[in-house]
Protein backbone atom coordinates (compact mmCIF):
# COMPACT_ATOMS: atom_id res chain seq x y z
CA UNK A 1 0.00 0.00 0.00
CA UNK A 2 1.09 3.54 -0.63
CA UNK A 3 1.21 4.40 3.07
CA UNK A 4 3.92 1.76 3.52
CA UNK A 5 5.86 3.20 0.60
CA UNK A 6 6.32 6.56 2.24
CA UNK A 7 9.25 7.24 4.58
CA UNK A 8 8.37 6.87 8.22
CA UNK A 9 6.91 9.96 9.85
CA UNK A 10 8.45 11.32 13.07
CA UNK A 11 7.65 9.23 16.15
CA UNK A 12 4.09 9.77 17.31
CA UNK A 13 2.99 11.29 14.01
CA UNK A 14 1.39 9.88 10.86
CA UNK A 15 0.67 11.41 7.47
CA UNK A 16 -2.38 13.65 7.64
CA UNK A 17 -5.05 14.07 5.00
CA UNK A 18 -4.69 17.05 2.63
CA UNK A 19 -6.49 20.33 3.06
CA UNK A 20 -9.33 20.53 0.54
CA UNK A 21 -9.88 23.94 -1.05
CA UNK A 22 -13.08 22.90 -2.77
CA UNK A 23 -14.98 19.83 -3.96
CA UNK A 24 -17.52 19.74 -6.79
CA UNK A 25 -20.03 17.10 -7.86
CA UNK A 26 -20.20 17.04 -11.67
CA UNK A 27 -23.38 14.97 -11.79
CA UNK A 28 -21.95 11.87 -13.42
CA UNK A 29 -18.91 9.62 -13.73
CA UNK A 30 -15.68 11.27 -14.89
CA UNK A 31 -13.98 9.25 -17.59
CA UNK A 32 -10.67 11.10 -18.00
CA UNK A 33 -8.33 13.24 -15.94
CA UNK A 34 -9.25 16.91 -15.39
CA UNK A 35 -7.61 19.64 -17.49
CA UNK A 36 -7.61 23.37 -16.94
CA UNK A 37 -6.97 26.84 -18.33
CA UNK A 38 -6.76 30.14 -16.45
CA UNK A 39 -10.48 30.25 -15.65
CA UNK A 40 -11.91 26.76 -15.78
CA UNK A 41 -11.39 23.11 -14.92
CA UNK A 42 -12.80 20.79 -17.60
CA UNK A 43 -13.86 17.16 -17.19
CA UNK A 44 -15.54 14.63 -19.47
CA UNK A 45 -18.74 13.09 -18.17
CA UNK A 46 -20.52 10.48 -20.29
CA UNK A 47 -21.59 12.40 -23.42
CA UNK A 48 -21.04 15.81 -21.77
CA UNK A 49 -18.33 18.30 -20.79
CA UNK A 50 -18.44 20.11 -17.45
CA UNK A 51 -16.59 23.38 -16.77
CA UNK A 52 -15.91 24.42 -13.17
CA UNK A 53 -14.53 27.67 -11.80
CA UNK A 54 -10.85 27.17 -10.88
CA UNK A 55 -11.20 29.40 -7.81
CA UNK A 56 -14.08 27.76 -5.96
CA UNK A 57 -15.29 24.79 -8.05
CA UNK A 58 -18.65 26.36 -8.84
CA UNK A 59 -20.33 25.27 -12.08
CA UNK A 60 -19.61 27.53 -15.04
CA UNK A 61 -21.46 25.46 -17.64
CA UNK A 62 -22.25 21.96 -18.82
CA UNK A 63 -22.36 21.11 -22.54
CA UNK A 64 -24.30 18.03 -23.66
CA UNK A 65 -22.47 16.43 -26.60
CA UNK A 66 -24.71 13.39 -27.06
CA UNK A 67 -21.93 10.96 -27.96
CA UNK A 68 -19.13 9.17 -26.14
CA UNK A 69 -16.02 11.24 -25.42
CA UNK A 70 -12.85 9.19 -26.07
CA UNK A 71 -10.35 11.70 -24.70
CA UNK A 72 -9.86 14.78 -22.51
CA UNK A 73 -11.08 18.22 -23.62
CA UNK A 74 -8.38 20.39 -25.21
CA UNK A 75 -8.43 24.09 -24.22
CA UNK A 76 -6.93 26.26 -26.98
CA UNK A 77 -4.93 29.15 -25.44
CA UNK A 78 -7.10 32.28 -25.81
CA UNK A 79 -9.52 30.19 -27.84
CA UNK A 80 -12.30 27.60 -27.61
CA UNK A 81 -12.36 24.22 -25.91
CA UNK A 82 -12.01 21.32 -28.37
CA UNK A 83 -13.84 18.08 -27.64
CA UNK A 84 -13.74 14.84 -29.62
CA UNK A 85 -16.85 12.63 -29.71
CA UNK A 86 -17.42 9.19 -31.19
CA UNK A 87 -20.72 7.75 -32.43
CA UNK A 88 -22.05 5.03 -34.72
CA UNK A 89 -21.53 7.14 -37.85
CA UNK A 90 -18.06 8.43 -37.20
CA UNK A 91 -16.21 10.95 -35.07
CA UNK A 92 -16.61 14.69 -34.56
CA UNK A 93 -14.53 17.58 -33.29
CA UNK A 94 -16.63 20.15 -31.40
CA UNK A 95 -15.38 23.64 -30.55
CA UNK A 96 -17.09 25.03 -27.43
CA UNK A 97 -17.15 28.65 -26.30
CA UNK A 98 -15.11 28.77 -23.06
CA UNK A 99 -17.46 31.31 -21.46
CA UNK A 100 -20.76 29.43 -21.71
CA UNK A 101 -20.09 26.10 -23.47
CA UNK A 102 -22.21 26.68 -26.59
CA UNK A 103 -20.93 25.01 -29.75
CA UNK A 104 -19.07 27.35 -32.11
CA UNK A 105 -18.42 24.79 -34.85
CA UNK A 106 -17.92 21.10 -35.48
CA UNK A 107 -16.13 18.89 -38.00
CA UNK A 108 -17.35 15.37 -38.71
CA UNK A 109 -15.27 12.58 -40.24
CA UNK A 110 -15.15 8.81 -40.39
CA UNK A 111 -11.95 8.78 -38.33
CA UNK A 112 -10.05 11.40 -36.37
CA UNK A 113 -6.54 11.05 -34.99
CA UNK A 114 -6.49 11.59 -31.25
CA UNK A 115 -6.27 15.21 -30.14
CA UNK A 116 -5.51 18.10 -32.47
CA UNK A 117 -2.22 19.96 -32.51
CA UNK A 118 -2.15 23.63 -31.62
CA UNK A 119 0.70 25.95 -32.58
CA UNK A 120 1.78 29.06 -30.61
CA UNK A 121 -0.42 31.27 -32.82
CA UNK A 122 -3.49 29.22 -31.86
CA UNK A 123 -3.97 27.50 -35.22
CA UNK A 124 -5.60 24.09 -34.92
CA UNK A 125 -4.32 21.14 -36.96
CA UNK A 126 -6.46 18.03 -37.44
CA UNK A 127 -5.64 14.65 -39.00
CA UNK A 128 -8.79 12.96 -40.37
CA UNK A 129 -10.23 10.87 -43.18
CA UNK A 130 -13.66 10.97 -44.76
CA UNK A 131 -14.30 7.22 -44.96
CA UNK A 132 -12.73 3.87 -44.18
CA UNK A 133 -9.77 3.15 -46.44
CA UNK A 134 -9.50 6.75 -47.63
CA UNK A 135 -6.21 8.67 -47.35
CA UNK A 136 -5.70 10.74 -44.24
CA UNK A 137 -5.79 14.51 -44.66
CA UNK A 138 -3.93 17.02 -42.54
CA UNK A 139 -5.80 20.33 -42.26
CA UNK A 140 -5.33 23.69 -40.57
CA UNK A 141 -8.41 25.38 -39.13
CA UNK A 142 -9.28 28.70 -37.57
CA UNK A 143 -9.89 28.01 -33.85
CA UNK A 144 -12.95 30.28 -33.55
CA UNK A 145 -14.79 29.55 -36.81
CA UNK A 146 -13.51 26.11 -37.81
CA UNK A 147 -12.93 27.39 -41.33
CA UNK A 148 -10.38 25.25 -43.16
CA UNK A 149 -7.40 27.39 -44.10
CA UNK A 150 -5.67 24.62 -46.03
CA UNK A 151 -5.23 20.86 -46.16
CA UNK A 152 -2.87 18.29 -47.64
CA UNK A 153 -3.15 14.57 -48.33
CA UNK A 154 -1.28 13.29 -45.32
CA UNK A 155 -1.07 9.55 -45.68
CA UNK A 156 -2.29 6.45 -47.37
CA UNK A 157 -4.87 4.52 -45.32
CA UNK A 158 -2.37 3.27 -42.72
CA UNK A 159 -0.96 6.01 -40.50
CA UNK A 160 0.72 4.08 -37.70
CA UNK A 161 4.06 5.64 -38.66
CA UNK A 162 2.69 9.13 -38.27
CA UNK A 163 4.76 11.62 -36.27
CA UNK A 164 3.18 14.77 -34.78
CA UNK A 165 4.09 18.01 -36.55
CA UNK A 166 6.79 20.20 -35.04
CA UNK A 167 6.47 24.00 -35.01
CA UNK A 168 9.84 25.79 -34.97
CA UNK A 169 10.42 29.50 -35.57
CA UNK A 170 7.33 30.04 -37.72
CA UNK A 171 7.65 26.85 -39.76
CA UNK A 172 5.66 23.63 -39.48
CA UNK A 173 7.74 20.48 -40.05
CA UNK A 174 5.79 17.35 -40.85
CA UNK A 175 6.41 13.86 -42.19
CA UNK A 176 3.85 13.12 -44.91
CA UNK A 177 3.23 10.44 -47.54
CA UNK A 178 2.11 10.62 -51.16
CA UNK A 179 1.85 7.70 -53.60
CA UNK A 180 3.78 5.44 -51.26
CA UNK A 181 6.70 7.85 -50.82
CA UNK A 182 7.51 9.42 -47.50
CA UNK A 183 8.51 13.06 -47.33
CA UNK A 184 9.71 15.52 -44.71
CA UNK A 185 8.23 18.93 -45.50
CA UNK A 186 8.66 22.43 -44.12
CA UNK A 187 5.28 24.14 -44.43
CA UNK A 188 4.14 27.74 -44.20
CA UNK A 189 1.54 27.49 -41.38
CA UNK A 190 -0.57 30.26 -42.95
CA UNK A 191 -0.91 28.68 -46.40
CA UNK A 192 0.20 25.06 -46.15
CA UNK A 193 2.62 25.64 -49.02
CA UNK A 194 5.88 23.70 -48.82
CA UNK A 195 8.93 25.89 -48.28
CA UNK A 196 11.06 22.83 -48.94
CA UNK A 197 10.78 19.05 -48.80
CA UNK A 198 12.98 15.98 -48.77
CA UNK A 199 11.98 12.46 -49.84
CA UNK A 200 13.20 9.68 -47.60
CA UNK A 201 12.02 6.73 -45.51
CA UNK A 202 9.67 6.92 -42.58
CA UNK A 203 10.48 9.75 -40.18
CA UNK A 204 10.58 8.02 -36.83
CA UNK A 205 11.61 10.77 -34.41
CA UNK A 206 10.31 14.33 -34.29
CA UNK A 207 12.89 16.78 -35.73
CA UNK A 208 14.98 18.96 -33.42
CA UNK A 209 16.67 22.31 -34.05
CA UNK A 210 20.43 22.75 -33.62
CA UNK A 211 22.23 25.91 -32.43
CA UNK A 212 23.00 27.13 -35.97
CA UNK A 213 19.49 26.53 -37.28
CA UNK A 214 20.19 22.97 -38.41
CA UNK A 215 17.13 20.75 -38.46
CA UNK A 216 18.11 17.29 -37.21
CA UNK A 217 15.89 14.31 -38.06
CA UNK A 218 16.11 10.51 -38.10
CA UNK A 219 14.52 8.31 -40.75
CA UNK A 220 14.09 4.60 -41.41
CA UNK A 221 14.40 2.90 -44.77
CA UNK A 222 12.57 -0.41 -44.92
CA UNK A 223 12.33 -3.20 -47.50
CA UNK A 224 15.15 -2.10 -49.79
CA UNK A 225 16.29 -4.99 -51.99
CA UNK A 226 19.78 -5.24 -50.51
CA UNK A 227 19.22 -3.57 -47.17
CA UNK A 228 15.91 -4.36 -45.44
CA UNK A 229 16.56 -1.81 -42.74
CA UNK A 230 18.61 1.34 -42.26
CA UNK A 231 18.32 4.09 -39.65
CA UNK A 232 19.75 7.37 -40.94
CA UNK A 233 20.36 10.74 -39.25
CA UNK A 234 20.04 13.88 -41.38
CA UNK A 235 20.75 17.58 -40.99
CA UNK A 236 19.08 20.30 -43.07
CA UNK A 237 19.25 24.04 -43.18
CA UNK A 238 15.90 24.75 -41.52
CA UNK A 239 15.25 27.77 -43.73
CA UNK A 240 16.28 26.49 -47.17
CA UNK A 241 16.13 22.72 -46.80
CA UNK A 242 19.74 22.29 -47.94
CA UNK A 243 20.75 18.73 -47.03
CA UNK A 244 23.92 19.36 -45.03
CA UNK A 245 24.84 15.80 -44.06
CA UNK A 246 23.55 12.33 -43.33
CA UNK A 247 24.94 9.47 -41.28
CA UNK A 248 23.84 5.84 -41.25
CA UNK A 249 23.21 4.90 -37.64
CA UNK A 250 22.45 1.24 -38.18
CA UNK A 251 21.76 -1.07 -41.10
CA UNK A 252 20.74 -4.70 -41.27
CA UNK A 253 20.42 -7.23 -44.08
CA UNK A 254 18.21 -9.50 -42.01
CA UNK A 255 14.53 -8.60 -42.10
CA UNK A 256 13.64 -10.30 -38.82
CA UNK A 257 16.37 -8.55 -36.85
CA UNK A 258 15.42 -5.29 -38.57
CA UNK A 259 12.00 -5.47 -36.96
CA UNK A 260 13.59 -6.01 -33.55
CA UNK A 261 16.05 -3.17 -34.03
CA UNK A 262 13.28 -0.83 -35.16
CA UNK A 263 11.58 -1.14 -31.78
CA UNK A 264 14.76 0.11 -30.11
CA UNK A 265 14.79 3.57 -31.71
CA UNK A 266 14.06 5.75 -28.73
CA UNK A 267 15.34 9.30 -28.52
CA UNK A 268 16.88 12.33 -30.21
CA UNK A 269 18.16 15.32 -28.22
CA UNK A 270 20.19 18.31 -29.44
CA UNK A 271 22.30 19.84 -26.66
CA UNK A 272 22.91 23.61 -26.53
CA UNK A 273 26.55 23.14 -27.59
CA UNK A 274 25.48 21.45 -30.83
CA UNK A 275 25.93 17.84 -29.79
CA UNK A 276 23.30 15.60 -31.39
CA UNK A 277 22.49 12.70 -29.05
CA UNK A 278 20.75 9.68 -30.57
CA UNK A 279 19.73 6.66 -28.51
CA UNK A 280 18.97 3.36 -30.22
CA UNK A 281 20.52 1.13 -32.92
CA UNK A 282 23.72 3.09 -33.43
CA UNK A 283 26.14 0.22 -34.09
CA UNK A 284 26.37 -2.82 -36.35
CA UNK A 285 25.01 -6.16 -35.19
CA UNK A 286 22.42 -6.33 -32.45
CA UNK A 287 24.03 -3.89 -30.03
CA UNK A 288 22.55 -0.52 -29.23
CA UNK A 289 23.87 2.55 -27.52
CA UNK A 290 24.18 6.30 -27.49
CA UNK A 291 25.78 8.24 -30.32
CA UNK A 292 26.99 11.85 -30.07
CA UNK A 293 27.32 13.72 -33.39
CA UNK A 294 28.45 17.23 -34.29
CA UNK A 295 25.32 19.06 -35.51
CA UNK A 296 27.34 21.07 -38.05
CA UNK A 297 29.19 18.17 -39.70
CA UNK A 298 27.62 14.89 -38.59
CA UNK A 299 31.01 13.66 -37.37
CA UNK A 300 31.01 11.31 -34.39
CA UNK A 301 32.15 13.00 -31.17
CA UNK A 302 31.79 9.87 -29.03
CA UNK A 303 29.61 6.82 -28.57
CA UNK A 304 28.51 4.41 -25.87
CA UNK A 305 27.93 0.79 -26.94
CA UNK A 306 25.92 -1.59 -24.78
CA UNK A 307 24.15 -4.95 -24.85
CA UNK A 308 21.28 -3.36 -22.96
CA UNK A 309 18.12 -1.71 -24.28
CA UNK A 310 18.01 2.11 -24.25
CA UNK A 311 15.27 3.76 -22.22
CA UNK A 312 15.48 7.50 -21.57
CA UNK A 313 17.75 10.33 -22.65
CA UNK A 314 17.68 13.65 -20.81
CA UNK A 315 19.92 16.69 -20.35
CA UNK A 316 20.99 17.97 -16.95
CA UNK A 317 20.94 21.69 -16.21
CA UNK A 318 24.68 22.03 -16.91
CA UNK A 319 24.51 20.06 -20.17
CA UNK A 320 25.51 16.67 -18.75
CA UNK A 321 23.67 13.68 -20.19
CA UNK A 322 21.37 11.33 -18.27
CA UNK A 323 21.09 8.00 -20.07
CA UNK A 324 19.21 4.94 -18.81
CA UNK A 325 19.18 1.30 -19.98
CA UNK A 326 17.83 -2.07 -18.92
CA UNK A 327 18.75 -5.65 -19.74
CA UNK A 328 16.78 -8.25 -17.78
CA UNK A 329 15.14 -8.83 -14.44
CA UNK A 330 18.37 -10.21 -13.05
CA UNK A 331 20.63 -7.44 -14.33
CA UNK A 332 18.06 -4.69 -13.91
CA UNK A 333 18.28 -1.02 -14.72
CA UNK A 334 21.17 1.44 -15.02
CA UNK A 335 21.11 5.23 -14.97
CA UNK A 336 24.27 7.03 -16.08
CA UNK A 337 25.31 10.64 -15.84
CA UNK A 338 27.72 11.22 -18.73
CA UNK A 339 30.23 13.94 -19.52
CA UNK A 340 28.72 15.67 -22.59
CA UNK A 341 32.17 16.16 -24.18
CA UNK A 342 33.51 12.61 -23.85
CA UNK A 343 30.61 10.31 -22.99
CA UNK A 344 32.49 9.05 -19.94
CA UNK A 345 30.26 8.27 -16.95
CA UNK A 346 30.46 10.63 -13.98
CA UNK A 347 28.43 8.13 -11.96
CA UNK A 348 26.16 5.09 -12.35
CA UNK A 349 23.03 4.18 -10.41
CA UNK A 350 21.64 0.64 -10.48
CA UNK A 351 18.11 -0.54 -9.72
CA UNK A 352 16.59 -4.02 -9.90
CA UNK A 353 13.91 -4.22 -12.56
CA UNK A 354 10.47 -4.99 -11.20
CA UNK A 355 8.20 -7.48 -12.99
CA UNK A 356 6.46 -5.81 -15.92
CA UNK A 357 7.83 -2.40 -15.00
CA UNK A 358 10.63 -0.20 -16.27
CA UNK A 359 11.92 2.63 -14.07
CA UNK A 360 11.49 6.20 -15.21
CA UNK A 361 13.54 9.29 -14.43
CA UNK A 362 12.04 12.63 -13.50
CA UNK A 363 13.93 15.89 -13.16
CA UNK A 364 12.57 18.60 -10.91
CA UNK A 365 13.55 22.27 -10.61
CA UNK A 366 16.94 22.97 -9.03
CA UNK A 367 18.32 19.75 -10.50
CA UNK A 368 16.60 17.25 -8.23
CA UNK A 369 16.56 13.76 -9.72
CA UNK A 370 14.10 10.97 -8.94
CA UNK A 371 13.90 7.37 -10.14
CA UNK A 372 10.37 5.98 -10.15
CA UNK A 373 9.91 2.22 -9.94
CA UNK A 374 7.15 -0.22 -9.06
CA UNK A 375 8.62 -0.99 -5.66
CA UNK A 376 9.99 2.34 -4.46
CA UNK A 377 10.95 5.93 -5.20
CA UNK A 378 14.61 6.97 -5.06
CA UNK A 379 15.91 10.53 -4.76
CA UNK A 380 19.45 10.91 -6.11
CA UNK A 381 22.03 13.64 -5.64
CA UNK A 382 22.45 14.78 -9.26
CA UNK A 383 26.13 15.65 -8.74
CA UNK A 384 27.28 12.39 -7.15
CA UNK A 385 24.55 9.86 -7.91
CA UNK A 386 24.33 8.98 -4.22
CA UNK A 387 20.94 8.19 -2.72
CA UNK A 388 19.56 11.07 -0.64
CA UNK A 389 16.47 9.18 0.43
CA UNK A 390 14.47 6.17 -0.66
CA UNK A 391 10.94 5.08 0.07
CA UNK A 392 10.26 1.67 1.58
CA UNK A 393 9.35 -1.13 -0.86
CA UNK A 394 5.69 -1.54 -1.72
CA UNK A 395 3.89 -3.73 -4.27
CA UNK A 396 2.15 -1.09 -6.36
CA UNK A 397 2.74 0.96 -9.45
CA UNK A 398 3.16 4.67 -8.88
CA UNK A 399 2.72 7.79 -10.93
CA UNK A 400 5.00 10.68 -10.13
CA UNK A 401 4.97 14.43 -10.56
CA UNK A 402 6.94 17.20 -8.89
CA UNK A 403 5.46 20.40 -7.55
CA UNK A 404 7.29 23.17 -5.66
CA UNK A 405 8.94 21.57 -2.64
CA UNK A 406 7.23 18.19 -2.92
CA UNK A 407 6.83 14.97 -4.89
CA UNK A 408 3.42 13.48 -5.63
CA UNK A 409 3.03 9.69 -5.64
CA UNK A 410 0.00 7.88 -6.98
CA UNK A 411 -0.81 4.20 -6.52
CA UNK A 412 -3.15 2.82 -9.18
CA UNK A 413 -3.65 -0.45 -7.26
CA UNK A 414 -4.85 0.87 -3.92
CA UNK A 415 -6.15 4.19 -5.34
CA UNK A 416 -4.19 6.50 -3.06
CA UNK A 417 -2.17 9.65 -3.47
CA UNK A 418 0.76 10.64 -1.28
CA UNK A 419 2.69 13.89 -1.06
CA UNK A 420 6.24 13.80 0.32
CA UNK A 421 8.74 16.57 1.01
CA UNK A 422 11.17 16.83 -1.89
CA UNK A 423 14.26 17.32 0.24
CA UNK A 424 13.68 14.66 2.91
CA UNK A 425 11.00 12.29 1.62
CA UNK A 426 8.97 12.83 4.79
CA UNK A 427 5.23 12.40 4.17
CA UNK A 428 3.00 15.46 4.12
CA UNK A 429 -0.29 13.71 3.49
CA UNK A 430 -1.96 10.60 2.13
CA UNK A 431 -5.34 10.61 0.41
CA UNK A 432 -7.67 7.78 -0.69
CA UNK A 433 -8.87 8.89 -4.13
CA UNK A 434 -11.04 5.91 -5.06
CA UNK A 435 -10.96 3.80 -8.24
CA UNK A 436 -10.24 5.31 -11.67
CA UNK A 437 -9.02 8.60 -10.27
CA UNK A 438 -7.52 11.24 -12.55
CA UNK A 439 -4.93 13.88 -11.78
CA UNK A 440 -3.87 17.37 -12.86
CA UNK A 441 -0.97 18.50 -10.62
CA UNK A 442 0.01 21.60 -12.60
CA UNK A 443 -2.42 24.28 -11.44
CA UNK A 444 -0.27 26.53 -9.25
CA UNK A 445 -0.19 25.35 -5.63
CA UNK A 446 -3.28 23.19 -6.10
CA UNK A 447 -3.63 19.53 -7.08
CA UNK A 448 -6.79 18.58 -8.97
CA UNK A 449 -8.14 15.06 -8.51
CA UNK A 450 -11.15 13.51 -10.24
CA UNK A 451 -12.80 10.54 -8.55
CA UNK A 452 -13.93 8.43 -11.51
CA UNK A 453 -17.33 6.83 -10.96
CA UNK A 454 -18.09 9.11 -8.00
CA UNK A 455 -18.00 12.09 -10.37
CA UNK A 456 -16.29 14.56 -8.05
CA UNK A 457 -13.45 17.00 -8.68
CA UNK A 458 -11.38 17.92 -5.63
CA UNK A 459 -8.87 20.77 -5.35
CA UNK A 460 -6.22 19.96 -2.74
CA UNK A 461 -3.65 22.18 -1.09
CA UNK A 462 -0.02 21.23 -1.69
CA UNK A 463 1.09 22.35 1.79
Provide a descriptive summary of the structure in words.
The chain has 463 residues and is an all-beta fold. The chain has a domain at 42-200: YVTN repeat-like/Quinoprotein amine dehydrogenase (Methylamine Dehydrogenase, Chain H, 7 Propeller), CATH 2.130.10.10. The protein contains two helices and 41 strands. The strands form ten sheets. Strands 10, 11, 12, 13 and 14 form a five-stranded antiparallel β-sheet that branches. It has a four-stranded antiparallel β-sheet with strand order 1-41-40-39, with no helix packed on it. The longest helix has 8 residues, at 255-262.
Secondary structure topology:
Layout: H1 2-5, E1 20-25, E2 35-36, E3 40-45, E4 48-53, E5 59-64, E6 74-75, E7 81-87, E8 90-96, E9 103-109, E10 111-112, E11 117-118, E12 124-129, E13 136-141, E14 148-155, E15 166-168, E16 171-178, E17 181-187, E18 194-200, E19 202-209, E20 214-222, E21 229-237, E22 243-252, H2 255-262, E23 267-270, E24 275-280, E25 288-294, E26 300-306, E27 309-315, E28 321-326, E29 333-338, E30 345-351, E31 360-363, E32 369-372, E33 377-380, E34 387-390, E35 398-403, E36 406-411, E37 416-421, E38 427-432, E39 438-443, E40 446-450, E41 456-461
Antiparallel strand pairs: 1-41, 2-3, 3-4, 4-5, 6-7, 7-8, 8-9, 10-12, 11-12, 12-13, 13-14, 15-16, 16-17, 17-18, 19-20, 20-21, 21-22, 23-24, 24-25, 25-26, 27-28, 28-29, 29-30, 31-32, 32-33, 33-34, 35-36, 36-37, 37-38, 39-40, 40-41
Amino acid sequence: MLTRSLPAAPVGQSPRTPAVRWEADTGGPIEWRPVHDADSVYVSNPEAVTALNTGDGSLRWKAEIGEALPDVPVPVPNGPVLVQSRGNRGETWHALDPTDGHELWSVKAHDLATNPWIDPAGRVYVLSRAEAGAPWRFSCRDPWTGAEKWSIAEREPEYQWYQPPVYIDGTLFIGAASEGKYRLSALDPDTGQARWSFDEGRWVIAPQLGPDHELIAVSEKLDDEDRPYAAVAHAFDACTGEHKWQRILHESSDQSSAKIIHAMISDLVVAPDGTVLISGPVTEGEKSGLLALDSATGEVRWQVVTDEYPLELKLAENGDVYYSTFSSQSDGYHLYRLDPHTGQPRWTHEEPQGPGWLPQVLQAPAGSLYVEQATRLTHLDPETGKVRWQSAPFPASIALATIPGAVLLGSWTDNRLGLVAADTGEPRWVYSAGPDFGLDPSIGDTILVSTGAAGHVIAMDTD
